[in-house]
From TrEMBL, chain A:
Annotated protein name in UniProt: Anaphase-promoting complex subunit 5
Residue ranges occupied by any Anaphase-promoting complex subunit domain in the UniProt entry: 322-422
GO biological process, one term: protein K11-linked ubiquitination
Organism whose genome encodes this protein: Quercus lobata
Annotated keywords: Cell cycle, Cell division, Mitosis, Ubl conjugation pathway
Automatic annotation (TrEMBL), chain B:
Gene3D superfamilies, A to Z: Tetratricopeptide repeat domain
InterPro entries: APC8 (IPR007192), TPR-like_helical_dom_sf (IPR011990), TPR_rpt (IPR019734)
Taxonomy, superkingdom: Eukaryota
One GO CC term, this protein: anaphase-promoting complex
Name listed for the protein in its UniProt record: Cdc23 domain-containing protein
All residue ranges annotated as the Cdc23 domain in the record: 7-132, 175-319
GO terms of biological process kind: anaphase-promoting complex-dependent catabolic process; cell division; positive regulation of mitotic metaphase/anaphase transition; protein ubiquitination
Database matches in Pfam families: ANAPC8, TPR_11, TPR_16, TPR_8
Alphabetically ordered keywords of this record: Cell cycle, Cell division, Mitosis, Repeat, TPR repeat, Ubl conjugation pathway
SUPFAM superfamilies the record matches: TPR-like
Length: 997, 620
């Protein structure tokens, strides 16, 4: 029962195909038929041919257009000039009233196929080559018809009737042209009228139903009601129709997700008549799966569930539906439903259903592929935050796929385990990762999680490479890069003295891995894209046809236009599949993170920006949100939160204006230009054009604005404003990353401004998020307690702060979070510095420094150096020289890549060093002190960092006092007083974001 | 309870009314109950009792507690007035329509009644239309999957779903009418739900709802409306409508069974606002059974037997409940009686065959199979019985063939799916077994056997962790079955998982619910020993030993227990107990005897060498 290989899509005859056949007859009339359509020009004839080509190519599409849609397309392509096609089409269709008509029709169709020996061409006669695309299509249609049993013919006839009737009743404007000459229509339909009247026993129905009936059955034939009215009528119809219970809910759902007509058409009560082949439904499900993956949270759970349920009802043997249901419930965190559907899917299909299923070449394995079930179950547990169970299941998957020698599954499973290990801080895998597959446990060495991870990654990478799974290779490279970024590659077995041990991470390794991962795009191969080739592209054609061609053709309806049309028909969409784009996008995100850690602000920014401009279309919304988070964080650090000091200059105003114009005009082109412009600006501004890229141009206006604002330092948009924009954009995912970001920003700001209560509150919120039910996010947890310690420190509760930091350090140590370790150590040093125990602080600072060094965290290292200098300085004035030299060593890094706060601190420390140096006299070179101080004061005011600002002004006042500049001294003293006041009486001023909390 | 006489007269009228409306199953049911009522001694004639229970010994054996048949205090029955019939105005049309209906020409019957406004006519017209729709959609539904999946899986596609009462009715309403497989219409081509079919159902619903709003609907119409609503998926409304229907006309068993299929939890059942009528007791008994409240259901049936003492239906239902309580002996007796009274009965006989299978009575099973085969070989039950027979004979291929045939006749035949799964497990075709079990679960998610089967299948494939989920489901549904707990414990014990603590918990549960094969105690003792807890191990070995003594069984387990206990007490320096066990071991042959001897010898030397206080005290 399991392990069946499904035949490829069956070609079945539908009313739409009958229409295409009729059009074919118009295009290539047979010699026997008396009438020939006079084409206005050869170009027009050719255009019909192209159009037919497109139609036949898309005949395996999931959705077949309804008659009125087909007519609409015809109108667009041929303009108002030639409605006779349409008349002919509808007349022919409605003339088919008995099975015999259909038989005659198809035997007539056979006539238009040219026989191979009839070489003699009459002039103007188009002969359809049976081997051509169109000829093939026609032959398939005829064959499919001939295979039909009589019942099938009857059903086809019924369907054609419905197909015509729908078009007639909804295509209101059509009757004007059509009814006079095709009065036969009315004769063709009486049986339907009668049938309905017989069935609908409308004696005592309510007013509403009466109205509906009148509108949809009589009025439409004779009155020319505007479309809007019909929509209204359809709305009324919905509740009365039991089937449309699904229909109207689907409507709600689809309006969020995809083009509304898309899902609606498929499942609208009346249009569900024409069933698709297995292949087409599989394609539909595939598309939906992609959409779910991309922005899952914006799918409405119930609506999609309803669609799927209906689909299941219609096609009970199509088990893929269960898988989609699983995905849907996964996206909406419904654990039980997800589990249930996953198990059901695999119970039914044994893992051997779906487009991506490639039958085993040898045919030896007929026993299903339950290892895939295990893999999925493991990933599901992972998703729901059950790492232990996930590991259990994945281990089982490894074992089973080894048993069944399914190497592909094994490779994927290993990758999943790697992912699991690296994402979730499993403290010890002993006993979980069984002894069965790890090659090293047999030697009897116990490995740390990280070492195991490393071994696994290497193994997985090798396996993926040998199996030529391009995507897996790329993602393994990415995982490797991630590993290299944060973990030291300890030699697994170290003998003798630690001579060869190099306790460092290597940035070049990271870069290498990243580069290797993005090779994917160049050597992208057809790993599993056998199905997406023809059908999808031709679908895209026809969809595009409606958009650009509509205006283009109507506006230039002359001879020259046709060439362009031909060109447009052949334009194909980008052939890079979404999954590849996604992978490459995440490589950029990883790059941004890497540079963030290594301390290159511009590179981090530019990578995030590249991601935001080029890959947001393909990425999942949470990834896109991450990119925005990075950009906004960047803004906050480098430009403060709010209250711009600089005024936007003229050029940027102009630019903004242009963007706004673009918005108003709605012209996509202009917006695209803007993006190119602003992207160029970024490149030049940030990196002097080191990196070249071409933005793929499609995104929302908000997105452009955001990019523009982030890229252009002169536009006065700060982090909070940007955050607002981002919140708008990611309304659905705001729960996660954007919310965290908001809390972070709020906390930062509250600390600076001395709102300790607020800070504590925000901190608590973060803590709540960190202890969420869906698994523990170590990163967030560290972040929360780090911030907690900082809040305590700001409140001068040194011992508590130290205690929190200490326990945090222990945790980080336990889970091998080295990068965080460096930060925590630095915080501890800071705590000791603030509490006046400089001597105790020194070892912490040094430890932090060494961590930074081995992990190449340059910016953090600079800031650790700064702290070290401050510690030395507080040990007494005789250490001022040493402190100064330390600071000066770190200054290039700080000034180049540091944020406002760090820079200000460096300036102040530098000034203090000078001031405390007994050999330094203020009066001789006051600028050495005053310059950094004034710089610091400006930056701190932007940040509203009252405490440090007060200190700065205090120092300035002293300097001015020494210099004898009394006026300036007073001014500085005043500022000092102002900041002190602000610090002591924190005003609860308008805080736009806090209200949202 | 009402007097038997009033029941009788109510039923008599109801049977006529029901068959007048072509509700054949319901009228059959009612007639059976009518005959189930004890005859008046006044009308007593020998010929009347031929099909009755009077001569049987079963009542003496199982109906010991006559108290149950006294009425429950405080229950007053609502007497529902029997409906009057419409006038015979449309009688001729109606007669024609009914004839057409009887010949299964539903469209035609409906057409005849198109202008009739009498309630009866309206009902029959709607009912005919409904059956027509059902049949055409059945026709659609079984050629449609061919289209989607292709022709490879022949079995599942050619199936005709005879799942529901009305469909059966449609097929079986004429005696001797056999539906043949050739009737399966095969179509190819792009067809979905036929539009006209949908429209008819829609218009039907619309009409019925209007009628209901106007108040011009009779209970039969309400029943039909409930059917349509259920079809549509709006179960709550369907439930209310059906309750309305049964409250105003309680004798329509079809309505009750539809209502019961909509009550899957005790809460919904208690939420129903039903009038007290004796039919309600039938309903409740059957509903309790469906939601696995077997003892409650049994009590109800026993109470009903007070009136319907001779009802075969009630006997069969009691057998079903007993079967669920695993009282096979009683079930067998009941069925023997049933067959004696009603030799051509096919209903519920599959359960009898299950019991025979469990008791491994292959000759009785073959006799039963032959009997039903002669009666009606195209009943799913018959095929199932034959399947069971072949399975018992170890001919699994043939057995699968018959289960398939049963499923062809009724796609939603639950036990056939499960049994077929078992067969596939026997044949080591796990994917097929998984598929079969899953279908059973999708028909009824409370079927613990299918869950258990799934667990077994996955365990066979070496996926114990995956299997655990299924085992958990099955023990959740049937927490008192030791076999399930033991299988789950096995799963935990496998080499891949080694989750011994969990295994111990499962075994404990198994030991607590009357583990007949006595595996649990032994395993518990072994596991405890493995985990290094000798005391617990000794405790369980001792318990196991006690059990074996009580059941007078001997075997390797006994030897093992004795040996362990002897060595354990020896190490504990409780020599007397150790000696007792050692001497008992001496009764067995084999290496253990020698070990026991050497143990004894060892103990003696220790005792003589270092005489302890105790020994000295007691030794003469």
């Amino acid at each position: 029962m399991a392990g069946i290989v499904k035949p490829p899509g069956e070609f079945s005859i539908t009313p739409h195909k009958v229409s295409v056949c009729i059009l074919l007859q118009i295009y290539a009339p047979s010699a026997q038929i008396s009438f020939h359509f006079p084409f206005a020009s050869v170009a027009q004839h050719n255009r019909l041919g192209l159009f037919l080509l497109a139609l036949t190519k898309s005949c395996d599409d999931i959705l077949e257009p309804k008659l009125d849609e087909l007519i609409g397309q015809l109108r667009e392509v041929f303009g108002v000039l030639n409605p006779r096609f349409i008349d002919h089409l509808t007349t022919r269709l409605s003339a088919l009233s008995s099975p015999d008509d259909l038989f005659n029709f198809f035997s007539e169709m056979r006539g238009i196929l040219g026989s191979p020996e009839s070489g003699a061409l009459e002039d103007e006669q188009v002969i359809l080559d049976p081997a051509s695309n169109l000829g093939m299509f026609l032959r398939r249609c005829i064959l499919a018809f001939n295979l039909l049993a009589f019942e099938g013919v009857c059903h086809l006839l019924t369907n054609i009737g419905v197909y015509c009737k729908e078009a007639l009743s909804s295509c209101a404007s059509y009757e004007t042209t059509c009814f006079e000459d095709s009065s036969s229509n009315l004769e063709a339909f009486p049986e339907y009228e009668n049938m309905d009247l017989e069935n609908f026993v409308f004696k005592k129905v309510t007013e509403e139903i009466e109205a509906r009936k009148r509108a949809s059955e009589r009025v439409s034939f004779h009155l020319h009601a505007p479309k809007a009215l019909f929509n209204l009528v359809e709305d009324i119809e919905a509740p009365a129709d039991p089937k449309s219970k699904h229909g109207d809910k689907v409507g709600e759902a689809s309006s969020y997700v995809h083009p509304p007509d898309y899902a609606l058409r498929e499942f609208e009560p009346n249009s569900g008549i024409f069933l698709r082949t297995n292949w087409q439904i599989q394609g539909y499900l595939q598309e939906q799966a992609d959409a779910l993956e991309k922005n899952g949270s914006s799918f409405s759970l119930n609506a999609f569930e309803l669609i799927l349920r209906q689909l299941h009802k219609l096609a009970p043997e199509l088990h893929r539906v269960h898988f989609l249901r699983y995905l849907n419930s996964l996206c909406h965190d419904d654990y039980f439903a997800a589990l249930e559907n996953l198990l059901r899917y695999f119970d039914y299909s044994a893992g051997t259903e779906g487009i991506d299923f490639v039958p085993p070449a040898s045919g030896s394995n007929s026993f299903g592929r339950y290892e895939i079930a295990l893999l999925f179950l493991g990933m599901m547990h992972f998703q729901f935050g059950h790492p232990k169970q996930a590991l259990e299941v994945l281990t089982e998957a490894v074992r089973v796929s080894q048993q069944l020698s399914n190497d592909t599954c094994l490779a994927y499973t290993l990758a999943a385990i790697c992912n699991l290990l690296s994402e979730i801080g499993v403290s010890s895998t002993a006993g979980i990762l069984g002894s069965s597959f790890s090659p090293l446990t047999s030697i009897g060495i116990s490995l740390s999680v990280q070492q195991q991870l490393f071994v696994l990654l290497r193994g997985s990478l090798k396996r993926a490479e040998s199996l030529k799974l391009k995507r897996l290779v790329a993602s393994n490279h990415l995982a490797m890069a991630k590993f290299d970024l944060t973990h030291v590659q300890r030699p697994l077995v170290s003998f003798g003295p630690k001579a060869s041990m190099k306790l460092r991470t290597c940035p070049t390794n990271v870069c290498k891995e990243l580069r290797l991962s993005s090779h994917l795009i160049s050597e992208f191969s057809f790993e599993s894209s056998t199905m997406t080739t023809d059908g999808a592209f031709s679908t895209a054609w026809l969809k595009n046809l409606q958009k650009p061609l509509g205006s283009a053709i109507l506006s230039q309806e002359n001879g020259s236009g046709s060439n362009e049309n031909a060109f447009q028909f052949c334009v194909q969409p980008s052939s890079i599949p979404g999954s590849v784009l996604q992978l490459i996008g995440s490589s950029y995100l990883l790059r941004a993170t890497a540079w963030e850690l290594y301390g290159s602000a511009p590179l981090a920014r530019i990578n995030a920006l590249v991601y935001a401009t080029c890959f947001t279309d393909a990425s999942s919304s949470s990834d896109a949100a991450l990119a925005y988070v990075k950009l906004i964080q960047h803004l906050a650090v480098f430009r403060g939160y709010k209250g711009s000091v600089k005024k936007p200059n003229f050029s940027s105003c102009k630019k903004l204006n242009q963007v706004c114009c673009g918005e108003v005009l709605g012209g996509k082109k202009r917006l695209q230009e803007m993006v190119v412009l602003c992207a160029n600006v970024t490149v030049m501004d940030a990196d002097k054009g080191q990196m070249r890229y071409t933005p793929i141009l499609k995104s929302s206006i908000v997105h452009f604005k955001l990019c523009l604002n982030i890229t252009d330092p002169n536009v006065g948009l700060e982090a909070f404003a940007a955050l607002k924009l981002a919140e708008e954009k990611f309304l659905s995912v705001s729960k996660s990353r954007i919310l965290i970001l908001k809390l972070q920003l709020l906390h930062e700001r509250a600390l600076h401004r001395g709102h300790l209560k607020l800070a504590q509150q925000v901190c608590d919120e973060l803590g709540v998020l960190a202890s969420s039910v869906t698994g523990v996010d170590m990163e967030l947890k560290t972040e929360a307690s780090l911030r907690h310690a900082r809040t305590l420190l700001a409140a001068n509760q040194y011992s508590e702060a130290a205690a929190v930091a200490h326990s945090l350090f222990c945790m980080c140590y336990k889970f091998n979070l080295q990068v965080e370790n460096a930060t925590v150590l630095l915080l501890l040093a800071e705590v000791h510095k603030r509490s006046g125990n400089a001597v105790l602080g020194l070892p912490y600072a040094l430890a932090s420094l060494s961590f930074c060094q081995s992990f190449n965290l340059d910016l953090l290292k600079a800031s650790a150096t700064l702290t070290l200098a401050e510690l030395w300085l507080s040990l007494g004035s005789n250490h001022a020289k040493r402190a100064l030299s330390l600071i000066q060593g770190a200054l290039p890094m700080i000034l180049g890549h540091g944020g406002l706060e760090l820079r200000a601190r460096a300036y102040i420390a530098e000034a203090k060093c000078y001031l405390s140096d007994p050999s330094f006299s203020v009066s001789e070179n006051s600028e050495v002190v005053l310059d950094p101080l004034s710089q610091a004061s400006v930056e701190l005011q932007v940040l509203e960092y009252h405490e440090l600002a007060a200190e700065t002004f205090y120092l300035m006042a002293i300097v001015f006092h020494k210099l004898g500049q009394l006026e300036e001294r007073e001014e500085a003293a005043n500022s000092f007083k102002k900041h002190m006041m602000a610090l002591e009486n924190p005003l609860d001023d308008e805080d736009p974001l806090f209200n949202v909390l | 309870m009402n007097s038997k006489e009033s029941c009788r007269s109510e039923l008599r009228i109801a049977i006529r009314q029901l068959s007048d409306r072509c509700l054949y199953t319901a009228s059959k049911w009612a007639a059976e109950q009518l005959m189930g009522i004890e005859q008046d001694p006044a009308n007593f004639t020998p010929s009347n009792t031929r099909f009755q229970w009077g001569s049987s010994s079963i009542r003496r054996r199982f109906r010991t507690n006559e108290i149950t048949s006294t009425p429950i205090a405080g229950v007053s029955y609502v007497s529902t007035p029997v409906m009057e019939e419409d006038d015979a105005v449309d009688g001729d049309f109606y007669l024609l329509a009914k004839s057409y209906f009887d010949c299964r020409e539903y469209r035609r019957a409906a057409h005849v009644l198109r202008d009739q406004t009498g309630k009866k006519s309206v009902f029959l017209r709607c009912y005919a239309l409904y059956l027509h729709v059902k049949l055409s959609s059945m026709e659609l539904s079984h050629y449609y999957p061919r289209l989607v999946v292709g022709a490879t899986k022949s079995i599942n596609y050619a199936i005709i779903g005879l799942n529901t009462q009305y469909q059966k009715e449609a097929w079986y309403n004429e005696a001797g009418e056999k539906r043949k497989e050739e009737e399966v219409i095969e179509l190819e081509g792009p067809l979905g739900k036929s539009d006209s079919v949908n429209h008819e159902l829609v218009s039907l619903e619309r009409e019925l709802s209007t009628l209901r709003k106007n108040g011009s609907i009779d209970p039969f119409g309400l029943y039909l409306y409930g059917l349509v609503l259920k079809e549509k998926g709006s179960e709550n409304v369907a439930r209310t409508v059906l309750v309305e229907s049964v409250n105003s006309y309680p004798w329509n068993w079809n309505a009750w069974s539809e209502l019961q299929s909509l009550c899957t939890t005790i809460d919904t059942l208690n939420g129903l606002n039903l009038n007290n009528h004796w039919m309600k007791d039938f309903f409740l008994a059957s509903a309790y059974q469906e939601i696995r409240m077997h003892s409650e259901s049994l009590a109800k049936y026993e109470y009903l037997q007070g009136t319907f003492g001779y009802s075969n239906y009630i006997q069969a239902q009691i057998a079903k409940a007993q079967y669920s309580l695993r009282e096979f002996q009683q079930v067998e007796t009941i069925f023997e009686e049933l067959l004696r009274n009603d030799p051509y009965r096919v209903e519920d006989m599959d359960m009898y065959s299950n019991v025979l299978y469990a008791n491994e009575c292959s000759s009785a099973l073959s006799y039963l199979a032959h009997r039903v085969f002669m009666t009606d070989k195209y009943r799913p039950e018959s095929c199932c019985i034959i399947g069971n027979y072949y399975s018992l004979k170890g001919q699994h291929e043939k057995s699968v063939m018959y289960f398939r045939r049963a499923l062809k006749l009724n796609k939603n035949y639950l036990s056939a799916w499960t049994l077929m799964g078992h067969e596939y497990i026997e044949m080591k075709n796990t994917p097929a077994a998984v598929d079969a079990y899953r279908r059973a679960i999708d028909i009824n998610p409370c079927d613990y056997r299918a869950w258990y089967g799934l667990g077994q299948a996955y365990e066979m494939m070496g996926m114990p962790f995956y299997a655990l989920h299924y085992f958990r489901k099955s023990v959740f549904l049937q927490p008192n079955d030791s076999r399930l707990w033991i299988s789950m414990a096995h799963c935990y014990e496998t080499d891949q998982l080694r989750m011994l603590e969990e295994a111990i918990k499962c075994y404990r549960r198994a030991a607590n619910c009357n583990d007949r094969e006595a595996i649990a105690l032994h395993q518990l003792a072994k596991l405890q020993y493995e985990l290094g807890r000798p005391e617990e191990a000794a405790f369980y070995y001792k318990k196991d030993l006690e059990r074996m003594e009580a059941e007078e069984r001997e075997g390797p387990n006994m030897v093992e227990a004795l040996l362990y206990l002897a060595t354990y007490y020896k190490t504990q320096k409780r020599f007397e107990e150790a000696e007792v066990y050692c001497t008992r071991l001496l009764d067995f042959t084999g290496p253990e005897k020698e070990t026991a001897k050497s143990l004894l010898r060892g103990m003696r030397t220790t005792q003589s060498g270092f005489p302890s206080m105790d020994v000295e005290h007691f030794s003469p």
